[in-house]
Every structure is written in C-alpha cells, then in structure tokens.
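In this section we walk through a basic example: taking a raw amino acid sequence and producing a predicted 3D structure, encoded as discrete structure tokens. The instruction is simple. Fold the sequence below.
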Amino acid sequence: HWGEVERGEIIVFLSPESNRNGQRIDLIKRVVAVGGDTVQIRAKQLYVNGERVEDDHAIFADTRYKSMPNRDDFGPVK
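The resulting token sequence is shown next.
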C-alpha cells in the first residue's frame, strides 16, 4: 500500500488471475472515481456523482460482444 488513490491518477497492478501461459500481467488503469463516488455511463458518457466527466479518454467503446444487450448505459453504482 503506497497511499490513497485519487481521481485522475494512473495505477498499475497485477491481474488477479493468470493468463493462458500461467502468468499474471500488468494492468494499467486510470482512476475515474474513488470510494463513496457514484459512477454511471449514460449514452457512452461517463458521469461521476451526477456530473458529466469532460474527458476524451473516458469513453466506452467495447464492440467485442455483439450478442450482449446494449452496453451504452451502466449504473448508477456507488
């Protein structure tokens, strides 16, 4: 534990599960919310605590699973 995570920071951690080669890989993620925040995606736009996040990197563009229902909306979750 290095300290408290803050919005906007980039964090690197090991994947919780191993890949096909039995290795855990580095995951690199940008923090968009912290404990107590409410997160929601509406029409592919990120909202944190009811406010739209104006960030070109905060997009949802996963098109791998065409058989799944519409994934343009998510949450809200706290």
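Looking at the output, two observations stand out. Residues 23 and 51 are 39 Å apart (CA to CA). The radius of gyration is 15 Å. In the next section we compare this with other chains.
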